Structure formats: structure tokens, C-alpha cells
Amino acid sequence: MRTWAIIMAMLVEFLLLSGCRKLNDMPPASITKVVQSTQFANGITYSILVVLVDDFGQMTTSDGKITLTIFETVWKEEDGAKHVAGEEKIYTTRVDVRKGDFVKDKLSIKTIDQVLLPGFNPPSQKEELLIYFPIKLPSDLALKSGRKEIIFETSKGKILKYGGI
């Protein structure tokens, strides 16, 4: 009987500990990764996934605000050749973020070939466990090849920048 009680106590403790694990909420030190995502579940959804890390390099969550700006390259033609003339801001959005809005999920990191050729799944495709915040994009901007800039401002005013994807 005593063994049964010990086993039950251990099982309850295990269930409580595994069910109560919350995502890391140490203060973020940087934006480590930004991934452009396409999901086809209920129509096509385009998102930018923002991954924060703490001082120890561990993925983390935070309250704050994320600003996403998309730039398009402006070209000029001179003497029959095209040259980059600069960038034009074509979209900006600012989103309030709460720690609870972050998602922990295993994502397949796909190459551009897999987007263009949906049946193509090379053996080098990898899955990564990420903790991220998704920013949904309007469909007309999703496939723009311009630079995307992310600025995350923590609730304590710390500014983190990610230059572009």
C-alpha cells in the first residue's frame, strides 16, 4: 500500500510540474531570429515570426510592442543599367504584445524551392522548436522581396532591433 501511495504521489508531482511549465520570461537581450511563414490550413496566412532570446541565449517571451516595417528597393536606370537608388517604406504596423501571446511550436524551416515547388521535400529540411510571436501580413505584401525591419520595445523601454530579412 505504501509503494502505491509513493507511486501516485510521484505521478501527481510529475503531472503538476509538466503541466505548469511556463515559457521563459527572462528579459530579452536581442531578437535572434525572424522567419517569414506561410500557412495553408484555412486559406493562405502569411506571417513574420519574431524570436527573442535572453542574456543566456535562451528563447524568451516579453510584454512590449513590436513594429514591423517593410521597405521596397527603388531602382533607377542609368546608361542602360539598373542601379539601386534607395528604399521606399511601403508598410508599417505596430502591435502590442503580451508574454501569453508567444507560441511554442516545432516548425519546419523550408527553402524557397519548397515554396515554389510544394511537393519538393529535400532531406536537408529541418524542424526547429521555436518560441515566437507571429505578426500577420496582408497577402499583397507577403511575397515582397524588400527588407523587413523589426523593432521590439519591452515594457521597460528597452529597444531591440532586427535589420532585415
Task: Give a verbal description of the structure.
By secondary structure, the chain is α+β, with helices and mostly antiparallel strands. It has helices spanning 2-19, 112-116, 139-142; strands at residues 30-39, 45-53, 59-60, 64-78, 81-97, 103-109, 126-137, 148-154, 159-162. The model is unreliable at 9-20 and 111-123 (pLDDT under 50). The protein has one domain. The strands form two sheets. Strands 1, 2, 3, 6 and 7 form a five-stranded antiparallel beta sheet that branches. A four-stranded antiparallel beta sheet has the order 5-4-8-9, with no helix packed on it.
What tags apply to this protein structure?
165 residues, alpha+beta, four-stranded antiparallel beta sheet, 50% strand
Give the SSE layout:
Blueprint: H1 2-19, E1 30-39, E2 45-53, E3 59-60, E4 64-78, E5 81-97, E6 103-109, H2 112-116, E7 126-137, H3 139-142, E8 148-154, E9 159-162
Antiparallel strand pairs: 1-2, 2-3, 2-7, 4-5, 4-8, 6-7, 8-9
